[in-house]
Amino acid sequence: MPAFLIPPLLWAQAATPPPPASPAVRNALLWLYLAGDTSLAIPGLIGALLTWAKIIGLVALVGWVGSWVATAVKERYVGVGRWYDYLGLLALVLIPLTVFVQVMQTEKWIRAVSIAGTPLASLMGYVAVVSLAIWALVGVWKTIGPFGRPADKLVLVGLGLALALGAGVGVAMVQLGLFTQIPGAPEATWRDGVVYGARLAVTYMGYVVLARILSLLVGELFSVRARRLYAIARVTLYESNRKMWAPWVVLIVFGMVLAFTHWFLQPPRAAEMGRLYVGTLTLLCSLLLTAMVTILTPISLPTDIQQQTIYTVVTKPVRRLEVIWGRMLGYMALVTVLVALFGGISLAYLWRTVMGEITRIEALAEKAKADGREREANQYSEQAEQLRSRMAARVPVKGSLSFLDSKGDPHAMGIDVGQEQSMKEPRSHIEGATAGAAIWRYGIVPDPFSPPNRPVMIDRRIDVAQFLPAGTVEGEQNRMLEVQAQIAAAEQEKSQQGVTPARASQLDAAIARQKADLDKAKASYESLAARADELAAAGKEDEAAALHAPPLKIEMTFNIYRTTKGEVGKPVYADIEISNNAVGSKFQDVFPVREYYTNRLIVKPDVLVGCLGSLRIDVRCMSPTQYLGMAESDLYLLAENGDFGWNYMKGLFGIWLQAMVLTAIGVFAGTFLSWPVALLTTIAFFIAGQLAFGFLIDFTRQAVLGGGPFESLIRLVTHDNQMSELAPTAGVVVAKTLDSLVMPIMSMLVYIVPNFQVLDVTNTVADGFAVDWRHMLGNTLLAFAYALPFSFAGYFILKNREVAA
Amino acid sequence: MSEVVIETRNLTKVYRDFWGRPKVQALKALDLQVQRGEIFGVLGPNGSGKTTTIKLLLGLLFPTEGEARIFNEPTTNVSKNERIGYLPEETYLYKFLNAEETLQFYGRLFKMSSTERNRRVGQLIDMVGLSAAKHRQLREYSKGMQRRIGLAQALINNPELILLDEPTSGLDPIGTAEIKELIRELREQGKTVVLSGHLLADMQDICDRIAILHRGELKELGKVSDLLTVQDVTQIRAKNLPPQALEEIRAVVARHGGEAVVDHPTTTLEELFLRIVRESELHPGRRKVAAHLEGGAEPAEAGSAS
Ligand SMILES: Nc1ncnc2c1ncn2[C@@H]1O[C@H](COP(=O)(O)OP(=O)(O)OP(=O)(O)O)[C@@H](O)[C@H]1O
Ligand SMILES: [Mg+2]
Q1: Which ligand is the nearest neighbour of the Cα of B52?
Q2: Are B200 and B241 found together in one domain?
Q3: Whole-model pTM?
């Protein structure tokens, strides 16, 4: 069974033994459950796609029902005081009332009341939901009659089937004991099954509507023609160029800011100059491009509609999707040109400033060396080295970090010394001169955060061939040992009982092949080693070194938490031990930790030979009463030093992706809003996605300190702090009710608002790390996952609105 | 064989506000048929629903009730636009493009080779007399020049059906004459032209059939020649009649309760138009369109007793 099919925790703990069900039924139910529960996300690409489909489906469902109901209201099919309108009104009153009752119960204002075994609040909730659904259904039904196509009626049938399916799945899950069971809670009844099934059904309904929408889109997609996209994109480019002078304004601002940058950019530490400059330049690019796109894109379509230029366009054989995509293409062409220009200019600028600084310092080092000032020379060359390390694209190979506490017991985290932390990767500390240690493990290792009795394994194997290339002494030696290990494994399998003869002969053949390999590797290792020794003996050190694998570089950035007991100014020492447990080799070193510096350790490559991808690195703090702080990415093997320029452009590509998503939103907003409103909407999306996304996530986790907006307001007025529980006064209950109504809606936003932050990889670039291709591909997919639905939504709006009204 | 190019059935448009409350009933139950090869005029005073009708035909607006079909396709079908040219009432084009870029842009939206497109762009710019100004951005154009480039853009695809909303507004007399000439040429090529306007003399010259709208209602529909024939007037022609004979005829007519009209066998479109508007204002509602005048282009036999 693939890993993502492993049933969730609670599932496995089902209280009652499951009645016999055929595995096929169980599997089908499992899949239906996975496809239906929105709170369930499975890792990997398929999981991401499924989550995406669920969300898009739900949005589509809301949009589909919403648009029919809106038409129904406008056409006066509903909202005219018939019986169903009273149902709608009832729902409107009942929903806040339900929440109010719920809040009063939790605040202990009233006793929890149950009617026929169902809590009152739930009952009210059901009535509200059902009345609302009936009202909406009547609206949709009455409107589809005169306005809809047969397919729309089919969708209604599909929605009914989805509801039945959901209820069926819910009940079946209860019957088969597959129901998520909270230990200790009363056993699930079929009613729980139906209620849960209704939740699943909503997702299934989303799929039905999604299918309808896709069927509507297919024809449109096939009708899109490159020449029309090109024509519209070109006019869009002309527009931003000739009407708004956008590229010129942006370029001039960029140039002007750049001209003064070095005046106000003072790095706190000399070594961080590159980081600061790169960070500032990418921030500038990002700001300018997003600002430009935010202003340009939402204005274009509304002005076209308002000034009626659109009349002559849509009366040509132009598809409405082309109107949207053509615009997006035009803007993205502009952004591409600007990104290329910005990239070129900023690289040239960085070359002049940072690289100039590096060569200057290196010249100083040379001079100091020539004058015999060794200490100074070392200082200079180290400074240059530090600067250089950031002006690269380092490829780190990271292990999995876990800790030993002062007594030597394992933990996922070390000591929290209460320093301010980056939320992304908090640092924890180990105490000096105790058993405390930070351990980075490579290989197939247990996730330190998984329960020790049921560890989840993660793959952190080292690609040894990358460090020990073939054709070097260590490379061939490593290959020899790897083949030996393979032979041993094959022989072990053969010696096991119950091996079929077929498998045994297969293994024999493999062993024979591997033995031949082994001989070859051994021969080449021995000749290489002999040759290297010969050269070394002859004093040709360089040539000998060329036959060996390059040394292994380990980089570390630790911080130090100094207690007052320590001696001021005395360096804090760390002990590092690298163990290759497969062959039992070890390397050990002690070095003074320099804060904010990349501490570099150069190790002979032998330590990796025969490790089969597994390695363990222990770091201890040697200085008593001092604490050494680290996070997982603070220690890594340096696999490669890539080209900085390329990496910088990859960073800008992240900004390009941001601009693309923003363009989709801007154009989308322009399809139905007047330009000032569309502009504000785009800005709001950007702010929500760039600055407030973390906040939105807190909303969905209901993890906001001090409650929702209304409760916070009360705290603000009464000066209560965020932790204290408010006394349940009338005001507090009302505020909590309002919060309970608003928060779910706010938390929905997390699914619609694009996460702009995650697309931005410029920090990695500024830190001097390579942005890897897989990450970029993932981000690209994510950006399209945001941009495409927005463009399709825009298409449906544009198609169904009167452009001349 | 005549073929229906445009057909509307019970076409009705009510403009509504944001809340769906009706604001204006711009078009009331319009039934029309336009045949291939016709020059069809839509007349009416300001605000009578001419532009609304054309927008409905193009799918720029959606009907409140009824339906319109072009080439027997629903108006929302994009593919029909391959064969249609449209000149809006006011020519709003992209002001930041020049004439050539404008036509190139619109040309690219159609399926035609680049050589064909370049040829047509050059030809149309010549035709509308903008060769000298073709590299200037449209923001510098005068109203008449914009109108001309608008007309060129409507013809870029060599359309079968051309909808012109007040094509002569803003044009000088020479331009007007040129447009009339152009429309006649289009008729010779077998194209169908629908034009709206209130310059009646022009319409009278070029239209085969006209519809007169007033406050969204169809008041008159038929062949221009028929509409302009005065039904209740008998014309007697004689040569070399002495004055006293004329007196006698007058007396005879008077005795039969008639009134002798000596001249004016046909009226002008202007008179017809004014009469309809006046009548319509006195008796709002649908005017009965004479049965023999309906039914499109088949030659109407009936006429005046001349
Ligand atoms: N977008 C709109 N919203 C509301 N009412 C409109 C709209 N467009 C037109 N109308 C109204 O519909 C009616 C018909 O307008 P329409 O533009 O079709 O007239 P027209 O015959 O073209 O007039 P004109 O000769 O002035 O061009 C008018 O009463 C007008 O006020
Ligand atoms: Mg008009």
Answers
A1: 1
A2: no
A3: 0.85
Domain ranges within chain A, ordered by starting residue? 3-223, 226-358+644-800, 428-467+550-630, 469-548
Helix (H) or strand (E) holding A444: strand A437-446
* Pocket flag, ligand 1, residue B115 (CB < 6 Å): no
Chain length of chain B:
306
With vertex at residue A672, the alpha carbon angle to CA A670 and CA A675, rounded to the nearest 5 degrees, is: 45
Q: How far from A739 is each of A548, A688, A698, A736, CA to CA, in Å?
A: 66, 19, 14, 5
Q: Which helix (H) or strand (E) holds A574?
A: strand A573-580
B207, two tokens? 């239209």
Query: B219-249 pLDDT, tens per residue?
Result: 888 887 777 665 555 566 666 777 787 788 7
Together in a domain, B258 and B117:
no
- Write down the residue that tokens 């290329």 correspond to: A340
CA A680 – CA A105 distance, rounded (Å): 40
Q: Is the pLDDT of residue A181 over 70?
A: no
A269 at B interface, C-beta within 8 A? no
Instruction: Provide the 3-class DSSP secondary structure of residue B32.
Output: strand
* Total beta-carbon pairs less than 8 A apart between chain A and chain B: 84
Scan for tokens 């240690």, then name that residue.
Answer: A437
Structural domain including B241 reads 232-265
**B161-165 vs B192-197, strand pairing mode:** parallel
- Say whether both B159 and B259 belong to one domain: no
Rounded CA separation A345/B63 (Å): 55
Q: Which residues of B touch A73 (CB under 8 A)?
A: 20
Considering the domain architecture, whether residues B72 and B180 belong to the same structural domain is answered as yes
Cα–Cα distance, B124 to B131 (Å, whole number): 9
Domain match, B161 and B221 both: yes
In tens, the pLDDT along A582-623 reads 888 899 999 998 887 888 899 999 899 988 889 999 999 998
Distance of alpha carbon A607 from alpha carbon A581, whole angstroms: 10
Query: Does one domain contain both B126 and B186?
Result: yes
Compute the distance between CA of residue B205 and CA of residue B203 in angstroms, rounded to an integer: 5
CATH of A428-467+550-630, one of 2.60.120, 3.40.50, 2.115.10, 2.40.128: 2.60.120
Min distance B19 CA to chain A CA atoms (Å):
6
Say how far apart CA A382 and CA A728 lie, in whole Å: 63
From A335's Cα to the closest Cα of chain B, the distance in A is 20
Check CB contact under 8 Å for A311 and B84.
Answer: no
A313 touches B at CB < 8 Å: yes
Rounded to the nearest angstrom, the gap between the alpha carbon of residue B304 and the centroid of all alpha carbons in its chain is: 25
Burial class (CB in 10 A: 0-12, 13-18, 19+), A222: exposed
Inform me whether the pLDDT recorded for B215 exceeds 60.
Answer: yes
- Does B24 contact chain A (CB < 8 Å)? no
Q: How far apart are CA A42 and CA A44, in angstroms?
A: 7
Query: Taking residues A196-202, what's their average pLDDT?
Result: 89
The CATH number that applies at residue B219 is 3.40.50.300
Q: What angle do CA A542, A640, A440 make, to 5 degrees?
A: 110
- How many domains does the structure of chain B reveal? 2
Of B62, B93, B109, the CB nearest to A228: B109
Residues 6 or more apart in contact with residue A210 via CB below 8 angstroms: A53, A56, A57, A60
